[in-house]
Hints:
mainly alpha; Four Helix Bundle (Hemerythrin (Met), subunit A)
Amino acid sequence: QDRSNCPADIEQLGRATWTFLHTAAAYYPAKPSPAHRTHMFSMLSALPSLYPCHHCAEHLGSHMKTKPPVVGSREEVMNWLCETHNEVNERLGKDTFPCTTEKLDERWKDGPKDGRCD
Ligand code: FAD
């Protein structure tokens, strides 16, 4: 059956959300203005109240209590998101991702050097 126009399940919602968040982080300025910082911090801080998977949102909320979003630069946001995503990966028994700027840029902004994503 064609499920392409069905409501998102937890996995699809998660993949779409991570895609948006990691991509937004990769294009966030290296030297953000005060407005940029406020917007990024507000958006990330709002997720535990707005993310439409109740138990996911609860886990995220407790994670953010000890590790609040760090939005002082592109690299800081990318790293914070990567660590936050890894916390979910570990809880779900998935592989973790190497949180280096090089690997994150390759995955979410530039694509691999062999050009297969160009
Ligand atoms: P995803 O985990 O969706 O990852 C997509 C792609 O991101 C991967 O293919 C990989 O290339 C890349 N990637 C992986 N790890 C990282 C990283 N650390 N940094 C950068 N890139 C990375 N599901 C639940 O069942 N329970 C939960 O409690 C839960 N909480 C969630 C909380 C949030 C905030 C979000 C956004 C999603 C949550 N999910 C949860 C969904 C879950 O994280 C996955 O999105 C879903 O299981 C689909 O997984 P996937 O294997 O397709 O890849």
